[in-house]
Please model this.
Amino acid sequence: MKGVAGRYGWRRAVKAAFLHACRVSGVVHIFRLFAKRKLLVLCYHGFELDDESRFRQIFTPRDSFRHQLEVLSAQKSNVVSLGEGLARLKEGRLTGNTTVITIDDGFYGAYAVAAPLLEKFGYTATIYVSTYHVIKETPVFRLVIYYVFDFASVPVLRVRNVAWGEDQDVDLADRDASRRAMWQCITYGETACNEAQRQEIARRMSAYAGIDYEHISRTRMFSYMNRGEIRDLASRGFDIQLHTHRHRFPPGDRAAACKEIEENRGILEACTGYRPVHFCYPDGIWDRSQWAWLKEMGVESAVTSDPGLNDRRTPLLALRRFSYSPRMPDVEFAAGAAGLMPFLRPIAQPSRRGTRPLQTEERHNGNEQK
Ligand SMILES: [Zn+2]
Model:
C-alpha cells in the first residue's frame, strides 16, 4: 500500500485498494453485467519512446500498454472498430462489453509503439490526428519548452539575448519564477514566430538547459506521425479520423472552427483515400452550439473527454470516454475497462464543456498561430 501511495498519491491508492477488494469479492463481475449493453470508448494520447512518461501524463509506457491489452483480452472485452461500435450502439446490438480503442493527436508513438502491439492482439483503433505537426514534421514546441524547464540539468537557466524579454538568470528551484519565464517563452514562440523560428528557440533553450535537442528531434518523442506513416497505418486497417488542423475548435467562431476541420480533412483524406467523418474535440472542450457546425461538415460522431459509458441516449456528438493516464494503478484501469466508469467519476476529469483554458500546462499541443 505504501508503495502504491507513493507512486500514485493517497487518494488514488485508497481508490485502488477499494477496487482491488471489489475485484476479489466478485463485485466487478456484477458491474460487467451492468455495463454489458453500453459502449466503452478507451482514450489514449502518446506512447513512450524515451522517458516521456515521467514527464507528462499523456505518454503511456510500452509495457503498461501491453499489460492493458492483456487485461482487455483476459476480460474478454469485445474490441471493435469505432464504426462497428457506433452501429451496434444505434441498433441496440451491444452485447458482451463492446470496447472501442481511440488514440488522440497522432504522436509518432502511436505508430511506433501502439500500432504493432494492437496488431499483436488482433485489435484495431481509431486515431484522431491533428495535422499541423504532421505537415511540419517538427517536435511540438510547447512540449520541448515544458521539458526544458522540467528536466534542465543546470540549477539556473541563463537566458540571454532573447526577443521576448530581458536577459535573466532563472532559478529553476523557484517554481513561480520558472513558470513565469517558461510562459513568456511559450507565448512569444506561439504568437509571434513561424515554425522555423520556434524550432530555433527550442534548440537554444535546450542548449541553455543542457538538454540534447538533437536527441528530442531524432527520437521523435514530441513529434507526430508524418504523412507516409499515416498512409501506412490506414493501409493496415487503422481508422484515421478528425482532430482539427491546429488542435483548436473555438466555440464562438463558426468560420474558424469549420476551416480547422476542412484543412484537417483535406490532409488526412489525401493520405488515407477516404473522407474522415468522425471527430474528437481538441482538449476535450465542447459546446452544444458546435453540433450544428459538425453536422454541416458531415461529421457523424464526436468524442469528448467526459468520463462515462455510452448507451442509446448518449448524443453521438458528445460520446463519453475512459481516459487512461500513466498515473492510474493497474486495478483502476481493469475496473474502468470492466465498465465501472460511473463509479470512478470522483477521480476522473470533470466535464470541460464551455470552458477554454488558453494558458495551462494541461494542454499538450501547441497553440501555434502560424
Ligand atoms: Zn488532442
Remarks:
- The first strand starts at residue 40 and ends at 44.
